[in-house]
């Protein structure tokens, strides 16, 4: 799963855990063509970078935005 891999690739011991949202625009075969981000922490930026060039299941229509919002509790 893409989220599992990006979480482990981007995790560091002293990461600010502020909420962030990453959006990806998919083309017809499911290739991530463009990304947008709300949040400027190192984790948010790394997560967005890791998504670029990945492929998800083909969407029903194009362009097709997908998003994930991550927040953290103590």
Short précis:
The protein is an alpha+beta fold. It has a three-stranded antiparallel beta sheet with strand order 2-1-3, with helices on one face. The chain is 26% helix and 28% strand.
How would you describe what is shown here?
This protein has 74 residues and is of the alpha+beta class. It is 26% helix and 28% strand. The protein has 2 helices and 3 strands. It has a 3-stranded antiparallel sheet, covered by helices on one side. A hairpin with a 5-residue loop joins strand 1 and strand 2 (32-38). Helix 1 (2-10) crosses helix 2. The longest helix has 10 residues, at 42-51. It is elongated. The relative contact order is 0.29. The mean pLDDT is 84.
Q: Unreliable segments (pLDDT under 50, ≥5 consecutive)? A: none
What is the number of strand segments?
3
What profile does the largest beta sheet have?
3 strands, antiparallel
β-strand percent reads 25-35%
Instruction: Please provide the ordered H/E string of secondary-structure elements.
Output: HEEHE
Topology of helices and strands:
Elements: H1 2-10, E1 20-26, E2 32-38, H2 42-51, E3 64-70
Antiparallel strand pairs: 1-2, 1-3
Helix pairs in contact: 1-2
Which tags fit this structure?
alpha+beta, 2 helices, 28% strand, 74 residues
């Amino acid at each position: 799963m893409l989220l599992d891999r990006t979480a482990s690739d981007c995790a560091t011991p002293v990461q600010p855990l502020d909420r962030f949202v990453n959006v990806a625009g998919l083309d017809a075969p499911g290739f991530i063509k463009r990304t947008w981000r709300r949040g400027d922490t190192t984790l948010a930026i790394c997560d967005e970078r890791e998504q670029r060039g990945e492929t998800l299941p083909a969407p029903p229509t194009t362009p097709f935005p997908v998003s994930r919002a991550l927040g953290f509790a103590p």
